[in-house]
Design a protein that fits this description.
This protein has 122 residues and is α/β, with parallel strands linked by helices. The protein has one domain: 3-Layer(aba) Sandwich (Oxidized Rhodanese, domain 1). It is 33% helix and 15% strand. The chain is built from 5 helices and 5 strands, in the order βαβαβαβαβα. Helix 2 links the parallel strand 2 and strand 3.
Length: 122
């Protein structure tokens, strides 16, 4: 298997990051984007507060919204879900150089008692 072109994050690192700086999912350059890469129904059901939804298979949306050097953190459902590592790999292949994967996903986040929200993000 090829070496990863992206980093992985632990729940503690992601939690600390969210506590110190909210995601900026609108600015194409500054801050970081937090992106749930599951389908729209799964996102509506539950997601990490502050995240947006760009489902796996719609990686072109990242190119439309963000510069290649913007920090992008992706996540999916669980360590057994391959959506976020697949998207992280695709973004790295497309030239994004600041991609991180919270590979444990929603299952570990909820198990830790961290906040989740449902419905569409603002």
């Amino acid at each position: 298997m090829a070496e990863k072109d992206f980093e992985t994050l632990s729940k503690e690192v992601l939690r600390e990051r969210l506590n110190s700086e909210q995601p900026d999912n609108e600015d194409p350059r500054s801050g970081y984007a937090l992106v749930n890469v599951l389908g729209e129904d799964a996102f509506r059901e539950q997601h990490i507060p502050g995240s947006i939804n760009i489902p796996k298979g719609e990686e072109g949306e990242f190119e439309r919204r963000f510069e290649k050097d913007k920090e992008i953190i992706v996540y999916c459902a669980s360590p057994d879900c391959d959506a976020s590592p697949t998207v992280a790999r695709e973004l790295a292949d497309r030239g994004f150089d600041n991609v991180r994967d919270y590979e444990a996903g929603m299952s570990e986040w909820k198990e830790a008692g961290y906040p989740v929200e449902s419905g569409r993000a603002a």
